Amino acid sequence: MRITIDCTDEETCERIRDLLHYNLATSVAEISNVRISVSQEMDSFGSRLVRCRMLTQLRSHENIAIDELQSSAEMALTRAIERTSRTLQRRRTVAGASR
Fold first, then answer.
1. What residue ranges of the chain have pLDDT lower than 50?
2. Got the DSSP string for 24-62?
3. CA terminus-to-terminus distance, the chain
4. Which of the residues 3, 37, 44, 86 has the least number of beta carbons within 10 Å of its own beta carbon?
5. Per-residue pLDDT at 94
């Protein structure tokens, strides 16, 4: 699994790497590439929000794209990674049921 992280500070990059390895450990064999980016945006009320975009390319040539917008970087990262993990679990369950 190749990981590409677009972020500004090394501490955040290391935290993202740790979260990815923890949450996607059971799916490493299915994943070829993960690209994750973190950016800040302002909402219509002037509040600062954090956008986490995660693109996961599977060895089966399918893609999983998750876009999460939250008030904190930690929440945006955690939710995007957990949503990807749940999507992978559902695909395994569906594939197992169809056999």
1. none
2. TGGGGGGEEEEEEEEEEEE-TTS-EEEEEEEEEEETTS-
3. 26
4. 44
5. 80
